[in-house]
Amino acid sequence: MSAVPTHRVAEDFIARRALRHIEKGRVVVCVGGTGNPYATTDSASVLRALELQCDCVVKATKVDGIYDKDPKKHTDAVRYDVLPLEEALHKNLRVMDQTAIALAHDENMPIYVCRIEDVHLIGTDEIVGTYVHTKHHIEKKG
Questions:
Q1: What are the pLDDT digits (tens) for 22-47?
Q2: Which of 107, 123, 137, 139 has the greatest number of CB atoms lying within 10 Å of its CB?
Q3: Is residue 35 part of a domain?
Q4: Which pTM value belongs to this model?
Q5: What is the domain extent for residue 81?
């Protein structure tokens, strides 16, 4: 479903319609960001996850999680398995833009960061990545 009109390629994004697709067991792929300038795709992904009542946001990227420094430049970079959203904000770890992280934090939306090649492993013990959470979310699950 697209936030920008692309009728030949995708259905327009309408939250109620997307939720109906999900209720029917269909996979909904949201494209086109928010359809507004100045909003990043990171912010759009958190926004859509909230609108669609998702359990978490999956950020599929080039690396297998969030590191304390760029693993492509630093061989001693250490990957976080679990990371509080507050720490990601405070340390400015740049996994997503600050607006997206702040929105996820404010709305208690966890984020899972993994390699794009590993998305199909989500929900298995084979997935490697970083789970970014809020204290509230951990307490609710625990």
A1: 999 998 998 888 888 888 899 999 99
A2: 137
A3: no
A4: 0.81
A5: 55-141
